UniProtKB/TrEMBL annotation:
Protein name listed in UniProt: RQC P-site tRNA stabilizing factor
Gene: rqcP
InterPro entries: RqcP (IPR025490), S4_RNA-bd (IPR002942), S4_RNA-bd_sf (IPR036986)
UniProt record similarity statement: Belongs to the RqcP family.
Span of domain RNA-binding S4: 1-64
Organism: Brevibacillus reuszeri
Record note on quaternary structure: Associates with stalled 50S ribosomal subunits. Binds to RqcH, 23S rRNA and the P-site tRNA. Does not require RqcH for association with 50S subunits.
Amino acid sequence: MRLDKYLKVSRLIKRRTLAKEVCDKARVEINDRPAKASSNVKIGDKLAIRFGQKIVSVKVEDIKENPRKEEAASLYTVIGEVPVPRDEKEEEAYIKGKE
């Protein structure tokens, strides 16, 4: 499934057009690689989404074309949330310290 559609059906992002814009601004990564809106999402992939002042990491658990509102949260598991570093040096230091 396309990344922008997955973000919408899983309700991580409310609208598909917004999901596409977020991807185009390089704010989404799949398995630690920048992803485009057309990137393919598979079960087991790890997504990192930058929302304003935090980065949310999730693991793809399931893929459904049209899940119900109640099923949407079961499509992923939140791995963690971290605050966004203020500059690139701070971000690199955080990533190196995490590995």
